[in-house]
Design a protein that fits this description.
binds succinic acid; single chain; 7-stranded antiparallel sheet; binds manganese (II) ion; alpha+beta; 3-stranded antiparallel sheet; about 290 residues; about 25% helix; 12 strands
């Protein structure tokens, strides 16, 4: 799937593009059906909400689950980003966020590139998020919120929040959020939240400021996020384990467009469990040396 010049201009201006119902219900079901079994696993790659059994985020399913390995090579997700960067991509991070009914907790205001720079030493912002909804997203189940145009501000000052949720994040403080929302139009469009049926896709810039509230509704809001990085922009530090920040910079080769419906063969290197190397970090080497 290729972007039109008008879409490229819109992306440059707003920092995101929304594609409602890009995947059919039949395609989406192949993914949704695989999630409960993945979430049940007692593995490091399932991060649960604070004080709850509900999965907040599952990492790296493309390394051990066939439907997600196919999604990670889907031309509708990969090609638009290749167009924007004019370069091949590798998978920096792959996650299935739960935001489960009643239990899903907030994601504080942040830029993803803030974390990728501070933790992983990713040299520039040439990386992109592509999200696909596996459930309908509405105003009740904690939709993503964006501040349009905030990507133009580059890397903003951030604070490492280890306290609010079960997942550490570099977050942007309230005063700066107030200014950014005002600049984007205040009550008239200063915050947007794309909502739509399961199968919808959002592509958003790694510096776009975003957040989501908790899910007090009885509706799950499972979404998959591919974080795609230009190969030349690969990370320079392995402070975080490999299942969170990948270290294989091989360019992604797309499968055909019908890959969610046909059983094209895919490699599943972690299907028998996480290798010890995927849990190791450069901080372990530091500890050994100390
Ligand atoms: C994220 O920012 O990485 C996730 C936000 C969400 O799933 O609501
Ligand atoms: Mn994020």
């Amino acid at each position: 799937m290729r972007l039109t010049p008008a879409q490229q201009q819109q992306f440059d201006r707003e920092g995101y593009l929304f594609f409602p119902s890009l995947f059919t219900p039949e395609e989406t079901r192949k993914l949704t059906d695989a999630v409960p079994e993945l979430y049940e696993r007692r593995e490091a790659y399932n991060v649960r909400e604070k004080g709850s059994e509900a999965v907040r985020t599952n990492f790296a399913a493309h390394m051990y689950s066939e439907p997600f390995a196919r999604l990670a090579r889907h031309p509708r997700m990969i090609e638009p980003v290749e167009d924007l960067f004019g370069e091949q991509l590798y998978m920096h991070q792959f996650k299935i966020n739960g935001k489960m009914a009643f239990e899903g907790d907030v994601w504080q205001w942040h830029q993803d590139y803030g974390t990728w720079l501070n933790d992983d030493l990713m040299p520039t912002e040439r990386a992109m998020n592509v999200a696909i909804f596996l459930d309908d997203v509405n105003e009740f189940n904690g939709p993503l919120m964006f501040i349009p145009g905030s990507h133009k501000k580059g890397v903003l000052e951030a604070r490492h929040d280890l306290r609010t949720t079960s997942y550490p994040l570099w977050t942007v403080d309230n005063d700066l959020i107030r200014q950014l929302v005002e600049r984007a139009g205040g009550r008239q469009g200063g915050i947007v939240s794309p909502k739509g049926p399961a199968g919808s896709m959002i592509l958003f810039h790694s510096c776009l400021v975003h957040a989501s509230t908790s899910n007090l509704s009885p509706f799950n809001r499972v979404s998959v996020y591919l974080s795609l990085c230009a190969v030349s922009n690969h990370i320079r530090r392995h402070k975080r384990p490999e299942y969170i920040a990948h270290r294989d910079f091989t360019p992604i080769s797309c499968l055909p467009d019908d890959c969610l419906l046909k059983d094209y063969p895919v490699d599943l290197p972690w299907k028998d469990g996480l290798p010890a190397s995927a849990l190791q970090t450069s901080m372990d080497e530091f500890k050994l040396a100390a």
